[in-house]
Amino acid sequence: MTIVVKATLALALDGDATLAQPIEVHRKEKLLGAGPSIVCDTDLVPYKPRADVVYTGNAWAPRAVQALHVRLGVHGRTGYFEKTLQVIGERLNQGGQPAPFYRMPISFDRAWTGPQGENPIGVTERSGRMANLFNTREPAKAICLGAMSARFPERARLLNGIDPRALENPAPPPDAGGIWAVDLPGNRPFEYFLSAPPDQRLDQLNGDENILLENLVEGQSRVRTRLPGIKSLAKIFGAALPPAGQLLELTGDTLVIDGVQKLVSITFRGTVPIPGTEALLRSLRVFATIEMPGYPIQWPAAPAIPADRASSPGRPPLVEEATPMLDDGEGTSSSTKAISPEDAMKLLAGRALPFGGAVLPGAPLPPPPAPPPPVAEETADEATLSPAAGASLRNAILGGAEPLVPPTTRMDPPT
Q: What's the pLDDT at 216?
């Protein structure tokens, strides 16, 4: 079983990010405006072998300019990267003078397609204009800071002929009784679920990373924010588990930085084997939350698990939220870390439960149609999962975004 928790924080110009109004859990790719670029990929995937870092927003100049450099950096205990793009105003041809600009979207449709067509929505020589985003070392290469759609060759080739509909997350079949499965292919292409460009991936997120944004936030030439030591945990109760429940520490694997809204979201994910039949899986009750300095967790009392929940085919698992208010003093000796990639592959070799049933177990897939464009994001109400899904939860912590304050120091790579 995979559990997903998403936390939302407000950027600070030079200090710790603070809790903010939560944004929705995305069941599908979220389009950037009318497309074709995307803001972010779906949050509902069974496993990510590394951590994605993506930026959505614009390049901002302090005044109208013809060219500008922007930089994104993320520095953490388990790794770091810095990436610089050159942004140039609109031109019709190579020798033309760039038009001055104050704002330029950072999206793949503003970059070249690349020598091998790696960016299928990019600018080509037949586009009648030049690209706006450039790699400072390889000008012909496709470059961006945003998320790659599932249609990009970088991701699609990892499916090796698998119908991508088998990995999507529609609503459960009406006869699934609130719990359903995705049959994963034998080669388990977990790298397919990584949507960040390869040079924007880390081994994992620890929740205390430093984020550097240069010319990526309106009115600020440099923003330096530190994640406030945030982590996520879940406690699972069920007929096949110990009465005190099983504590699972989730792993941060997705960081989305929104330069327009001045928000950052971090998604945590944990995979844990649950023994027993699907009838026993229906007895599960999951509490999930976040923890950070000043917000310790108050776990609820262990719920009573009625016998009929382990036998009734129409009773789905319940997913609820613990309250990050008071520390119950519980140690971590009984906790379970999110499992390793190797263990995840063994666990998920047959199924990932209970992710949205793109296809019922054993049901053959019809011939795949031509790849459709990404679907525009649904409303927040539609994007919020019901407890029957049993595999995702967004945080419901409310808080105000602190105003940006003037910078004081520059963030340097760790030594």
A: 98
Rounded Cα gap, residues 341 and 271, in angstroms: 10
Classify residue 25 by its DSSP letter. P
Q: What is the mean pLDDT of residues 327-355?
A: 40
CA angle 316, 322, 326 (to 5 degrees): 165
User: 117 pLDDT exceeds 70?
Assistant: yes
Burial of 43 (0-12, 13-18, 19+ CB in 10 A): buried
Whether the bond between 354 and the residue before it is cis, its omega within 30 degrees of 0, is yes
Rg, Å, the chain Cα set: 22
| Calpha distance 106→104 (Å, rounded) | 6
CA neighbor of 192 nearest in space, from 253, 148, 256: 148
Query: Residue 322 and residue 327: Cα distance in Å, rounded?
Result: 11
- The three-class DSSP label of residue 33 is coil
* 3-class DSSP state of 192: helix
Nearest Cα to 105, choosing from 121, 118, 120, 116? Answer: 121
* 3-class DSSP string for 328-373: CCCCCCCEEECCCHHHHHHHCCCEECCCCCCCCCCCCCCCCCCCCC
Contact call for residues 264 and 255 (beta carbons, < 8 A) = yes
Which DSSP symbol is given to 398?
A: -
Residue 82's Cβ-count burial label (10 Å; 0-12, 13-18, 19+) is middle
Structure tokens at 398: 């409310």
pTM: 0.75
